[in-house]
Amino acid sequence: MRRTLRTALAGVICLCVAFAARSAVVSLKKFTFEEEHALDKWNMMVLNGKVDYRQMREGGEHFVGALSQKAASALYYRIGFDVREYPVLSWKWRIIRFPDLAAAQTNEDRDDYAARVYVIFPFLSFSSSQFIEYVWAENIPEGTIFDSPFGDNVKMVVARSGTAPEGQWVAESRNVCEDYRLAFGREPSRGVGAIAIMCDADGTKSTAESNFTDIAIEGQGEINEKGE
Questions:
Q1: How confident is the model at residue 221 (pLDDT cuts 50, 70, 90)?
Q2: Which residue in 26, 49, 86, 92 has its CB near the most CB atoms, within 10 A?
Q3: CA-CA distance, 191 to 227, in Å (whole number)?
Q4: CATH code at 153?
Q5: Whole-prediction pTM
């Protein structure tokens, strides 16, 4: 009887362990922009005039508001990780105003987007570094991957296309490792050094506006029910 009970208990314990040590999303970093002065930990790279980036709150949502008036600059956050271990990048964004692409004269001018999210693989210089750049395009089909007009080391991925209902947030989740393979045709061979957000309208000399929040870097790992 006791042997039968011990066998049964052993089975229950094994079953509990199987449920406890389960695969789960492991978060490396998440940016919710609730903390006061959260943007102080980000740096600005000015390309052609300063975009107005500021922490904002609407209802219960904390976010970064980006307003470009004929300007192009990005906010970047230095963080090193192996994209093969933490391949998932997720975020929420919304478009307030697209740049006026009708005013563009060249391909470089048309490289204006109300919202971009970058994953940066740095090396010795800009030309030897690599970039995955997720954009919300107004007219380019979703899923399109193409080279930036400023270099084939920058791969543009159209994560979202067209307009969204006014004021509506849209959630994205991308496997950066898979997108890297599709864009560059090979496995990533270097680590990520930074992520960035950007709104720009300098090429079209127009105005663009967007919002960003809940930016998260995640991977898959083993955890147990008690978080041990």
A1: low
A2: 86
A3: 28
A4: 2.60.120.200
A5: 0.85
